[in-house]
């Protein structure tokens, strides 16, 4: 009886190997037919790796030789194609010979660290630094906007993840540089068609199994999941800092919103022990301006017209000459018109005008009295290169 079971298992393994070899053959032929693959690192690395496997080479020797003969000088490591036939072929072959998974690699350039947070660029939206939940939407980019625009308490950063090497490296570095993040929700679709990348499965495998001595994510099934620009200390710290909440495949914004709020309610406090030297963004005390500089483009007088429910705006040159008059039903339409007309040239002047327009609109809606405030700071006569006039008394005209 036992012998019959063993024979059955062996036959099943042989049949499975035969199917995998045929599928590997099919994917390689697709790559061979695509000239863009001939000069791509994905194709060349895969062929070289399969030729080093005695098991694969024995069955696909002729095909691999033909593929190798098509090599052109490599122009790119990876094109990010929607379907990466070499990567799929290598993943299939790795089920036959696990050593195949260790061969080749995608691009591993050193990351360019930036000042501020997050230190590495990416396809993400920053909500607030001190919040405790990060969300990785994998290949479901639309979730970034859907969740970021809902002002969810506890959400720190939300972004996509498309690769299981550089993508995961950047995610780890950005999270380790913010000790407030203690939860990572992994959601969205894990792959586009048969692209070969499985960043979600690889990220979850990293949390459960870590990396081997070559910095390959253990049991990751994605396309060459090597973390070349990190070491084991970074991975250990990342696994200690964040609790991963696995919801791969979930794309419902309402469900994810509840997950974010539930996680934020269990905030354990800031993480201590990240291997990166974290340079926190200091909180700076804002200062009132010491002096006021006139805008060379002129100044404005504005007031709400309660009778017609309109905001009125007059523009004057610094010599006191009325140049333009505007009317609008909202502050937004007014400041857009002023900007497009190039009637403002200083950022402090623009900030002041925006504040006053908002006050005027509020007064218009509520019926409250509006008096235009004087721009903050002391008037600096010498800074005005267009004229030496000072602001007149009564209504403030120095905006």
Summarize the structure.
The protein has 399 residues and is an alpha/beta fold.
Describe it for me?
The protein is an alpha/beta fold and 399 residues long. It folds into three domains: 2-101, no CATH class; 124-264, Rossmann fold (3-Layer(aba) Sandwich); 291-383, no CATH class. 39% of the residues lie in helices and 12% in strands. The protein contains twelve helices and ten strands. It has helices spanning 2-33, 35-38, 41-51, 54-69, 85-96, 142-148, 166-176, 199-209, 232-241, 253-264, 331-340, 347-366; strands at 124-126, 133-136, 155-159, 183-188, 243-248, 291-292, 299-305, 310-316, 322-328, 378-379. The strands form three sheets. The chain has a five-stranded mixed sheet, sandwiched between helices. A three-stranded antiparallel sheet has the order 7-8-9, with helices on one face. A two-stranded parallel ribbon has the order 6-10. Helix 1 runs parallel beside helix 4 and helix 11 runs antiparallel to helix 12 (347-366). The termini are far apart. Residues 381-399 have low confidence and may be disordered.
């Amino acid at each position: 009886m036992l012998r019959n079971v063993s024979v059955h298992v062996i036959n099943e393994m042989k049949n499975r190997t035969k199917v995998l070899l045929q599928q590997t053959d099919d994917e390689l032929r697709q790559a061979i037919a695509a000239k863009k693959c001939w000069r791509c690192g994905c194709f060349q690395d895969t062929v070289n790796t399969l030729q080093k496997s005695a098991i694969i080479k024995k069955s696909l020797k002729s095909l691999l030789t033909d593929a190798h003969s098509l090599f052109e000088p490599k122009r790119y490591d990876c094109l990010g194609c929607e379907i990466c036939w070499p990567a799929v072929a290598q993943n299939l072959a790795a089920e036959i010979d696990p050593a195949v998974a260790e061969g080749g690699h995608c691009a591993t350039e050193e990351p360019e660290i930036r000042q501020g947070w997050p230190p590495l660029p990416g396809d993400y939206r920053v909500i607030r630094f001190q919040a405790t939940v990060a969300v990785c939407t994998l290949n479901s980019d639309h979730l970034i906007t859907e969740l970021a625009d809902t002002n969810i308490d506890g959400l720190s950063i939300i972004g996509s993840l498309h690769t299981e090497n550089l993508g995961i490296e950047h995610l780890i570095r950005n999270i380790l540089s913010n000790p407030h993040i203690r939860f990572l929700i992994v959601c969205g679709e894990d792959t586009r068609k048969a692209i070969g990348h499985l960043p979600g499965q690889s990220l979850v495998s990293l949390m459960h199994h870590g990396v081997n001595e070559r910095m390959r994510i253990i049991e990751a099934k994605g396309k060459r999941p090597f973390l070349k620009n990190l070491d084991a200390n970074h991975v250990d710290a990342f696994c200690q800092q964040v609790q991963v909440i696995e919801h791969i495949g979930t794309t419902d914004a309402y469900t994810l919103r509840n997950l974010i709020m539930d996680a934020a309610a269990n905030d354990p406090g800031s993480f201590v022990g990240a291997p990166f030297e974290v340079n926190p963004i200091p909180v700076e005390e804002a200062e009132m301006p010491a002096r006021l500089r006139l805008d060379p483009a002129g100044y404005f007088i504005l007031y709400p017209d309660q009778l017609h429910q309109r905001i009125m705006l007059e523009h004057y040159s610094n010599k006191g000459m009325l140049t333009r008059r505007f009317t609008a039903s909202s502050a937004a339409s007014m400041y857009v018109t002023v900007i497009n007309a190039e009637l403002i040239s200083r950022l402090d002047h623009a900030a002041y005008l925006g504040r006053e327009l908002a006050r005027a609109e509020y007064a218009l809606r509520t019926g409250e009295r509006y008096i235009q405030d004087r721009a903050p700071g002391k008037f600096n006569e010498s800074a005005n290169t267009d004229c030496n006039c000072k602001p007149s008394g009564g209504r403030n005209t120095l905006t």
